[in-house]
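User: Can you predict the 3D structure for this chain?
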Amino acid sequence: MGHRGLDAYGYFEREGSLGTVRPEFAGLVAAARGRILEAYGGRLHSAYLYGSVPRGTARPGRSDLDLLLALHREPTDEDRDTAEVLGRGLDQDFPEIDGVGILLYGKETLLSERERHDLGWFLACLCTPLLGADLAEHLPRYRPDSLLARETNGDLALVLPRWRARFAAASEPSEYRRMSRSFARHLVRTGFTLVMPRWGGWTSDLAESAEIFGRYYPERAAQMRAAAAVALDPVEDPAVVRRYIEDLGPWLADEYTARHGTKAPRD
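Assistant: Here is the predicted structure, written as structure tokens:
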């Protein structure tokens, strides 16, 4: 990667590649490729890896596998069920990973004007092509500006009520553990994109994201560093999750809206 994840002209460099996948995960990636083709066949336009596996930072037995699948048409309930079965099978068959996440979209949505600075940016800059023709060829170059900050994470205020409902319905330690990882990741990434235009670059490293955030908000630095630690090593303590939805989350949502505005509405 270039300086702060950008090229000489200040545009994002695409992170990750199949060449940086660690040997321990090579069999998993090969199996994912084969099973995706088998599951979706002609409905599939293209498939992508993202996250720690293509960045080469995945930890055996601790990291999850993240996939983005682009279909020729908008996904149906059957397509979503297929993704669930596919993810569960990979998770069960490969102890190298702890969970599988599959994002499923129609290619028209991924290339739409509405998603240009959210899903489009995500695919073009953070996803590694695995199968099919790369949709990034139809998308522009991106800079770490306030528009990108707004459209990627400017909806935290809308997300928080869903988190609170999920927390209220939970009772098992395993549920709190999953929430702690998911919510912490989201908050650290949102904290980073809050300051991204001022810092002038990109990183997907959660610990580094928290440190960069802390330079601009020292009074919240310790909280964000702790969240980055939980994102990597989740906990079963409901009090940790409660602090995210009652303190750090609401503060971050208000600060984000004040600085970058609110993400354009979705359906």
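The longest helix spans residues 173-199. The mean pLDDT is 96.
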